[in-house]
Amino acid sequence: MATSHESSGNSSRSRSRSDQQCQVMCYHGEIAPLREVKYNGPNYGKKFYGCSYWPRTCGYFKWADEVHEIRDMQMMLLEKATGIAELEMEKGFLEEKIKRLKETKLKLYDVVEELSIENSEIREGLYAAKADKRLLLSLALSWIFFLLYVLIK
């Protein structure tokens, strides 16, 4: 099961844009070219990525379908990480909103307390005014009865 490490050439001009953006790197940090098994055997025609310095290779080797699976998993991981980051930002905004709402709640409790005190003072004033009215009415009625009594006698 021999494999050829010859590059498949520049026939890869029809590569998609995403393939060009997601290049596979060997252990040297160089772009690992996409190659194809040229010798007869069970892997004939199968594509793989290998070190760009072949035959003095760094040992990098990955089947192309494994790389695509890894990229798919990396993309899913990136999507999940992005979702988590968005949720964490939303959590931060909501925590800040809760903090502001708690502060507003405390201020409203203070306002309610002040209004309650003011309401009590007004009630006391009204009760005193009502008592004064009753006293004046009683006094006026007593003078009327007194005058009637004096006039009748």
Could you describe the largest sheet, including whether it forms a barrel? 3 strands, antiparallel
Order of strands side by side in the largest beta sheet?
1-2-3
Q: Mind telling me the C-alpha Rg?
A: 46 Å
Q: How big a fraction of the residues is strand?
A: 5-15%
First-to-last CA distance: 145 Å
What is the count of β-strands?
3
What is the tally of helical segments?
2
Q: N-to-C SSE series?
A: HEEEH
Mean pLDDT: 82
Roughly what percent helix?
55-70%
List the uncertain runs: 1-21
Helix- and strand-based class? mainly alpha
**What is the general shape?**
rod-shaped
Describe this structure in words.
It contains two helices and three strands; from the N terminus they run H-E-E-E-H. It is mainly alpha-helical. It has a three-stranded antiparallel sheet with strand order 1-2-3. The radius of gyration is 46 Å and the shape is rod-shaped. The chain starts with 16 loop residues before the first helix and ends with a helix. The model is unreliable at 1-21 (pLDDT under 50).
Notable features of this structure?
single chain; 153 residues; mainly alpha; 2 helices; 3 strands
